[in-house]
Design brief:
416 residues, alpha/beta, 7-stranded mixed sheet, two-stranded antiparallel sheet, disordered C terminus, Heterokaryon incompatibility domain-containing protein
């Protein structure tokens, strides 16, 4: 999820999220992909199959729940409004009547609703039929080969460096990546080795063949190393779903306090598994454990981003990424989480740009200016507030001092 606005101050509540529970959390407000209208479902109503959008929020260009209801002319000029329309079109093309989009499906003025949605976010993405990851800083150049122009540029996208997009990458069974112009780039399973190199997440977790329960809790926390959030405490909140705990967001706390509460949540939920935590270990461990290997890999593989080559053209995942090996220093996991079972990718998605024939409106859909099936093409000029992100952008953010010390120590021991 992108940044979800201001949280409210409330007492700490800690619960364990049972992902395999019969009543898993699902969104109760969706967008109808035919009409682009919001539809509310009661708690007793079953949630229909739905697609879900993952995206970075663009400052000043997003459409809120209230904006969408009022539907003013200035709202329809925003980038976020067109993004909603294109997402609806993609979902409808894939045969889905509904899609969940955080910016308009969460009423930011309702604190209880915001808290519920934040705590249910992992479950929302996990139970979606498909997730569309929209990369606003990846542009298609017609004169380049497809693989060179989109897949290679994908690795430097800021989408991979945001905190909330971590669970949006891991939780869904299917993730389809789209460029700024809504050209299809590829799917999570086909790109799993490159994504693994970039994020540190094992390929088997990405393709669903290995349940997240098999991954040590500490290792899961390192997946957000180098990621950034607009609000520092969100770096702890965005890990709740990955770690399987729930706590009430508090907009009065800083990042260190948020991580302390996250540690309390973990210890209370799994007391027999977290006796090794001491003091503020969870706060610093995020960047200290396994960061050396990832920083070293970033420098060794930096040419991959500059020369636009796929990091895994034919090879398998490196042995250094095998979790639980004696060399990794990680404990063997024993905490049970629900298996994210793989399902088939929508048949039409081939990893190539979608032709106009494939997105042509079907009979019965009115051609209006608001119809997502009759939209002008996106162009680089329409995308504002975002751009390519350097492979060294992990030097920014609230943990930059920790990262820099690790980098300096790593380089002093290497021959780079």
């Amino acid at each position: 999820m992108a940044e979800v606005g201001q949280f409210f101050v409330a007492p700490v509540t800690v619960t364990t999220m049972k992902r395999n529970a019969a009543k898993a959390l699902r969104p109760k407000r969706l967008v109808n992909t035919y009409t682009c209208r919001l539809v509310d479902f009661s708690e007793n109503d079953p949630t229909p199959p739905y697609a879900i959008l993952s995206h970075r929020w663009v400052l000043g260009e997003e459409v809120s729940y209230q904006d969408y209801l009022e539907s003013r002319p200035e709202t329809k000029k925003k980038l976020g409004y067109r993004k909603i329309q294109y997402a609806c079109r993609e979902a409808r093309t894939d045969g889905f009547d509904y899609i969940w989009i955080d910016s308009i499906c969460i009423n930011q003025g309702n604190h209880d609703e915001v808290a519920r949605n934040i705590n249910g976010m992992y479950s929302f993405y996990q139970h979606s039929e498909v997730c569309y990851a929209y990369l606003t800083d990846v542009y298609y150049k017609p004169n380049d080969g497809f693989a060179d122009s989109l897949v290679a540029r994908m690795w430097s996208s800021g989408w991979f460096q945001r905190g909330w997009t971590l669970q949006e990458l891991v939780a869904p069974r299917n993730v389809l990546f789209f460029s700024a112009g809504w050209e299809g780039i590829g799917c999570k399973r086909l790109l799993k080795f490159g994504i693994s190199r970039l994020t540190g997440i094992p390929p088997a977790v990405l393709d669903g063949s290995r349940p997240i329960e098999d991954i040590n809790i500490q290792e899961r926390m390192t997946w957000c190393a180098g990621r950034q959030t607009t609000r520092p405490p969100d770096l702890a909140y965005c890990l709740m779903g990955i770690l399987g705990v729930s706590m009430t967001p508090d907009d009065s706390e800083d990042a260190r306090m948020a991580f302390k509460r996250l540690q309390i949540a973990l210890v209370q939920s799994y007391p027999d598994r977290f006796t090794e935590f001491k003091g503020d270990d969870i706060y610093t461990m995020l960047l200290s454990q396994n960061m050396r290997t990832r920083v070293q890999s970033s420098y060794n593989e930096s040419s991959m981003l500059h020369c636009h080559q796929h990091p895994y053209p034919r090879s398998q995942a490196p042995a250094s990424q095998k979790v639980g090996s004696p060399q990794s220093g990680l404990m063997n996991p024993d905490i049970k989480y629900a298996v994210i079972a793989p399902t088939s990718v929508p048949p039409r998605f081939t990893g190539h740009p979608v032709s106009q024939a494939e997105i042509a409106p079907s009979a019965g859909i009115l051609e209006t200016n608001d119809n997502p099936l009759s939209l002008p093409p996106f162009s680089a000029q329409t995308i504002t507030g975002s751009g390519p992100v350097s492979e060294h952008s992990y030097l920014q953010g609230p943990f930059s001092d920790v990262v820099l010390s690790v980098i300096q120590d790593t380089l002093s021991q290497s021959r780079l």
